[in-house]
Amino acid sequence: MLRPVIFDDGKGMLQALTDLRPAYAIRTGCLTTIERLTRHFGVRPVALWVPDELREIARLRASDPVNPDHLGSGPVTLINGRCALPIPGIADLPLGTWFIEEGSGDIVAGCCDGASAMAFLSGRRPPVGDKRVVPAPALLSRPWHVRSFRDRAMRLDLELLLRPADPARDGVGSDDLFEGPSEGMPPDAATPKALVIPGHAVSIDPSAKVYPGAVLDAEGGPIVIGRDAIVRPGAMLIGPCYVGTGSTVLERATIRPFTAIGSHCKVNGEVGGTIFQGYSNKAHDGYLGDAYVGEWVNLGAGTTVSNLLNTYGEVVSKAAPGAGNERTGEMFLGPVIGDHVKTAINTRIMTGSVLATGGMFATTAPVSGATGRFVWRTDAGEQTFRASKFIDTARTVMARRRVEMHEAYARRLEALHAASTTPTPPTTNSGTSPGGR
Question: What span, in angstroms and rounded, lies between the C-alpha atoms of 349 and 155?
């Protein structure tokens, strides 16, 4: 029987995605990576392993053991949490066999005894045995790789979500920080309240509300609407797409293909090819395309992003401030927006931008490139949001969704702030203050 251990090796430049979660908890399609892997393999992880700085927050996110003292004596299968898609052969790896990503040499998966697994995970010993190279990219290593894996991940997720519910397989491995394990979706269902354009499956949870005047266009792919979700009158959903638990698609919204809205979001305007991690708001008009939106993000009215260069060329991006420009392999690439980011009304965000955790943007000039954590950027310049003020604001935002910030979460925010290299505040007073340092 497969005994998976899903681990975050801390590699790559994924800070905008992993400051507040392990790599396996990134929503890389309709589901997070750990949800996809556990649904696909049909078995819950025997353990999870994360870098020390994420250990506390990871334990909030999962009921499975995190960084345990031992893994037993039997064989375990280690799976890298940056492996967004299950690679054929992982479930049947012989003992002592490892999959290595081409180019990087990073471990994708491996099967070994518990003692050897502990030695590898704790950094005491490299993997020993038969090493087999798998084609790259097999692992996420840059923020824009969420876009690279998106379509394949969503197609697999929709297949997993639409199959008949099986309690023995579904609902395992949920890593949502703020709610309990996810449940398998019900069989296909349609609603007389909405106009349904047939072609593929449309699955609506019995607890969801789809109002008259909504349009569900499944001609190009399936549509799944989750538990307690709401689709308001006049909204249009074009499959393949997904609306998660407790999320609301507002009046006149257009949700284009390959959009996955995680739990407890509010979404309006034109949105296409975008993944919402969860608990975020885009409640007004404005375009959002080929983007990733973290948790507790609020996009002000009219916020609009670019996802295509005027030259129709390949987008070049930076993974973090100070990093070099890199080719992304993508023609269509919007921004990666980290957790707790806020934008003012009519903010413009340029192609391939990476906005780190906790930024606030209220500038007439477009936001571009890679931004630092906890920046407070206005036309007067760039400041650093004071940690205590930021955390107080975050507590207020979370409380509006009836979520209480755990002290481990607050400590992680404080540690990220302390490690931030954001520029020193300018002397100019913009009239909108983050509270100083």
Answer: 28
Pairing of strands 326-327, 47-49: unpaired
Closest by CA to 136, choosing from 123, 124, 149, is 149
Question: What is the layout of strands, in order, in the sheet containing 254-255?
Answer: 195-197, 215-217, 236-238, 254-255, 270-272, 287-289
Query: DSSP letter at 188?
Result: P
Return the bridge partners of 111, or none: 77, 97
Query: How far does the chain reach from its first CA to its final CA, in angstroms?
Result: 54
DSSP category for residue 152: H
Q: What pLDDT digit, counting tens, does each position of 4-14 carry?
A: 999 999 999 99
Q: d(Cα 334, Cα 332) in Å, to the nearest integer?
A: 7
Q: What is the pTM for the complete model shown?
A: 0.91
Q: Are 78 and 110 in contact, with CB atoms under 8 Å apart? A: yes
Q: Which residues contact 79 (CB under 8 A, 6 or more apart)?
A: 4, 5, 6, 7, 37, 90, 108, 109
- CA 215/CA 93 separation, integer angstroms: 45
